[in-house]
Amino acid sequence: MGKLAYLGILTLLVAGCSSGEQPGETRGPIDDGAGAGGEVGGGAGGAQAVECDPPLPDESLAEFLCDPAGDLACNNCHDCGKVMDGSAKAQAATCGVQCGSSRSCAEDCLTDNLGLSDDCTGCLIDFFDCLKANCLAQCLGNTPDDCTECSRTKPEGASCSEALETCSGATRNEDFSG
User: Fold this and answer.
1) Residue 162 domain boundaries
2) pTM of the predicted protein model
């Protein structure tokens, strides 16, 4: 797969959401030891609020939401901040151009440039692998909507997007209009 195809798929990485793991599997909880700062409420249904320093971006401005009080791979203050401020999505696109189809290069690129946890990076890379296996034709086209739609519907059972959300804890902000 060419660099531009990888870019297209990785750009949708966070937008569509998923993991290459079997349905129902999740990566373990992450404890980054983040300290005090702005209080964060959020999407983990009843989870106790976590204070992050620096505070997480305003949810109303975030394309993707992430709750550091959750127990999934990206649910820590650092990873959630990168998901919510859009830098994880932007860096995924950059890594796609730089790495072509090399999984290890993309993992190193995301980790080195964003400092994402290994588990969170793994969820994002697993999502890419799921898209390659199930949505390659749709994601190689010029219509990002086709790739996003495929990521939300394939494979049958748990889609690529559902698997990413289950793995990472990051979800699309349905109220985002930017």
Assistant:
1) 3-172
2) 0.70
